[in-house]
């Protein structure tokens, strides 16, 4: 079995794949290295290798690799930046400055779609990337996602205070809000929808026929606006398998 890791700044998304068909045997999210190790202890004896992508510092990533090697005695293969991969050409002036998770997501999308695509990732930050039919990354955009928008309002406006339950309840509708929670949550959601609408317009102008790929924890907030989109929650892992092939 192969362990795959997507190491973000706040959480580690993990999954274990097994067999020739790469079936997902287990998956989850860990809040720390220690939590990840404790969870993986159930599968440790069966792990034969690990591949990972990390946006953490080199020191933090190395510390995690050392922990995994110590506990499970497995080799860890890390994805690296590249000017080109699997037919996709990195569109940044300095290819190494494009976030690795973002790079792998658009490589994975191009591999699945086999043509022009718009990749939308709605997480803590929201990213959009355009890839032409011949694999040229045309660049992209980054803006705050729901967690960042919400936190900024709560941090800088004293009277905005509500809990997670109120936030979830508020997003059941996008009608004008009748409470602070409703006004904030629905306002932020509409901002995201406006961002997505702008990306669609831009993609139509630049790409012609294209496939929309949707990923990230807040994808549901725009899903109804994109009925034709391919929802791929593990899009980064698709690209990771391409970047770090294992026998």
Automatic annotation (TrEMBL):
Major place of residence: cytoplasm
Entry's localization field: Cytoplasm
Active site: 101 (proton acceptor)
Annotated binding of K(+), by residue: 121
Family: Belongs to the type III pantothenate kinase family.
Annotated HAMAP family: Pantothen_kinase_3
Name of the protein: Type III pantothenate kinase
